[in-house]
Design brief:
Helix 2 packs across helix 3. The two termini are 19 Å apart. This protein is an all-alpha fold. It has four helices and no strands.
Protein backbone atom coordinates (compact mmCIF):
# COMPACT_ATOMS: atom_id res chain seq x y z
CA UNK A 1 0.00 0.00 0.00
CA UNK A 2 1.37 3.40 -0.98
CA UNK A 3 0.71 5.36 2.19
CA UNK A 4 2.03 8.78 1.27
CA UNK A 5 -0.16 8.98 -1.82
CA UNK A 6 -3.19 8.64 0.43
CA UNK A 7 -2.60 11.84 2.41
CA UNK A 8 -4.03 14.96 0.81
CA UNK A 9 -2.59 18.43 1.44
CA UNK A 10 -5.17 19.47 4.03
CA UNK A 11 -4.75 16.26 6.02
CA UNK A 12 -0.97 16.59 5.79
CA UNK A 13 -1.24 20.07 7.34
CA UNK A 14 -3.48 18.80 10.15
CA UNK A 15 -1.17 15.85 10.75
CA UNK A 16 1.78 18.23 11.12
CA UNK A 17 -0.08 20.24 13.77
CA UNK A 18 -0.73 17.12 15.84
CA UNK A 19 2.79 15.77 15.32
CA UNK A 20 4.54 18.99 16.28
CA UNK A 21 3.01 18.84 19.75
CA UNK A 22 5.40 15.94 20.42
CA UNK A 23 8.70 17.82 20.70
CA UNK A 24 10.78 14.65 20.99
CA UNK A 25 9.02 12.94 18.11
CA UNK A 26 6.38 10.25 18.08
CA UNK A 27 6.62 6.58 18.88
CA UNK A 28 5.42 3.77 16.64
CA UNK A 29 1.98 3.44 18.25
CA UNK A 30 1.26 7.17 17.74
CA UNK A 31 2.65 7.00 14.19
CA UNK A 32 0.23 4.20 13.31
CA UNK A 33 -2.70 6.09 14.84
CA UNK A 34 -1.83 9.28 12.96
CA UNK A 35 -1.60 7.50 9.65
CA UNK A 36 -4.89 5.70 10.27
CA UNK A 37 -6.55 9.00 11.07
CA UNK A 38 -5.12 11.05 8.21
CA UNK A 39 -4.94 8.64 5.28
CA UNK A 40 -7.72 7.70 2.93
CA UNK A 41 -8.35 3.97 3.23
CA UNK A 42 -11.18 1.48 3.28
CA UNK A 43 -11.89 -0.59 6.38
CA UNK A 44 -10.62 -3.75 4.71
CA UNK A 45 -7.24 -2.04 4.17
CA UNK A 46 -6.57 -1.35 7.85
CA UNK A 47 -4.23 -4.32 8.33
CA UNK A 48 -2.23 -3.39 5.23
CA UNK A 49 -2.09 0.21 6.46
CA UNK A 50 -0.82 -0.92 9.86
CA UNK A 51 1.87 -3.13 8.33
CA UNK A 52 2.87 -0.38 5.90
CA UNK A 53 3.02 2.12 8.76
CA UNK A 54 5.39 -0.11 10.71
CA UNK A 55 7.67 -0.51 7.69
CA UNK A 56 7.58 3.22 7.01
CA UNK A 57 8.36 4.06 10.63
CA UNK A 58 11.36 1.73 10.61
CA UNK A 59 12.60 3.23 7.34
CA UNK A 60 12.37 6.77 8.72
CA UNK A 61 13.81 6.00 12.18
CA UNK A 62 17.34 5.51 10.88
CA UNK A 63 18.96 6.14 14.27
CA UNK A 64 16.66 3.50 15.83
CA UNK A 65 15.75 5.65 18.84
CA UNK A 66 12.12 4.55 18.61
CA UNK A 67 10.86 8.02 17.70
CA UNK A 68 10.31 9.93 14.49
CA UNK A 69 10.39 13.72 14.56
CA UNK A 70 8.39 15.83 12.12
CA UNK A 71 11.50 17.07 10.31
CA UNK A 72 12.68 13.46 9.83
CA UNK A 73 9.31 12.54 8.35
CA UNK A 74 9.32 15.51 5.97
CA UNK A 75 12.92 14.84 4.95
CA UNK A 76 12.06 11.22 4.21
CA UNK A 77 9.12 12.05 1.98
CA UNK A 78 11.00 14.78 0.11
CA UNK A 79 13.99 12.54 -0.68
Amino acid sequence: MEIMGRINTEKFRKMSQVWKKHKKGIQLSDFILLLQKFTEHANHERLDLMNGSIELFNDIDINADGRVEWHEFVQYITD
